[in-house]
Amino acid sequence: MSSPATTPASLILLLCASSQLLADVHLIVGTPEQGGQFTSVQTAISTIPASNAERYVIDIMPGIYTERVFVVPDRVTLRGMGASPNDTKLTYFETANTPPNESTVHASTVVRGKDFVAENLTFENSAGQNAGQALAIYARGDRSIFNNCRFLGWQDTLRSESGRHYFFDSYAEGSVDFIYGKGQAYFENSTLFAKAPGYLTAQGREQANETNGYVFKNSTIMGSAPNGSVYLGRPWQAYSRAIFIDTKMSSIINSAGWQTWSGNNHLTSYFAEYNSMDLAGNPLDVSARANWSHQLTDLEAAAFSKEVWLAGSDGWNPIAEILPDPSADFDGDGDRDGRDFLVWQRDPGIGNLADWQANYGVPALTNAFAVPEPASCVLIIALLSSSSSLWRCR
Known about the structure:
Layout: H1 9-22, E1 25-29, H2 41-45, E2 56-60, E3 63-66, E4 69-71, E5 76-80, E6 88-92, E7 107-111, E8 117-119, E9 122-125, E10 135-139, E11 144-147, E12 150-152, E13 158-160, E14 164-168, E15 171-174, E16 179-181, E17 184-188, E18 191-194, E19 198-203, E20 213-217, E21 220-223, E22 230-233, E23 241-245, E24 248-249, H3 265-268, E25 270-274, E26 294-295, H4 298-302, H5 306-309, H6 319-322, H7 338-345, H8 353-360, H9 378-385
Parallel strand pairs: 1-2, 2-5, 3-6, 4-7, 5-8, 6-9, 7-10, 8-11, 9-12, 10-13, 11-14, 12-15, 13-16, 14-17, 15-18, 16-19, 17-20, 18-21, 19-22, 20-23, 21-24, 23-25, 25-26
């Protein structure tokens, strides 16, 4: 590619037009006073065409939204706009006993679309402790990301059913099997909170050649359940798989760690730990763990990195989608300036100039004027004509 200093203006405009075609579409949910275009999350989702090529980013203003949410289109981002996930809640009372009695789809929020992203949100099923199965979320879209989210419920709170799912800086609470399903999920820097005696996981891998399972890394297990009354998991199916790596565990976890279910599923399932710790970070005594569970070696634990676990055949890397480069030098020219902001702004799920400033301060070349949206080419042309750096468009 020729340098921007020698790129014809007509080509620059063409590149800008192409970028505009791929630009994210933003919708706002909230009250009129909050600038909302919609007052319902589901109403906003219903405007997304089934064959959308762009990513639709739905900014949800702080508040409590009592509604069932179905995300069917691909490439949808739901983003809470509060200071924390506590400020924006999607909640609904929905149980397995709600007619028609098809428990797999009875969830407050259902995600079927691929490349889904949720950020800074709370997903809640408001059914109580004695309601039976009551999912806060049912996720089956491939390449889904849940960043800084909370999942509230009791039984079967979070169902990762199929596809690859990445949970980062998130919180899930419940009692019985409150993380379950047949998905290929990775939980990192997350907290599991057991509200009553029960089981954290009930993973559903059915065949030995299936790639699904649950991995928990650098996470914390705590709760209000009595000491020794909670198990890391139990085998829902014959080849269930759950692995805890570098995870802190409170005394609510039973010394056996794992529990059987029906038949001999525990003998063909794979339950493992590596470097389990107490809440203070001291090595945990695992000598009484179930003799059919595993304590991993360094080499074995490395095989369960997120890069390996989630890559699949397409090399998916969720970190590249949710975590900005801490250097903020996105065009690789050694400077942190307006050009970096423009590249950063085009990434899926990225916010506006205020978000940039909160992370990196005011970038050079944006002090005197507002940085335009991707469709605006005046500043882009000015930047290109004054720099020999390579220009990248999505």
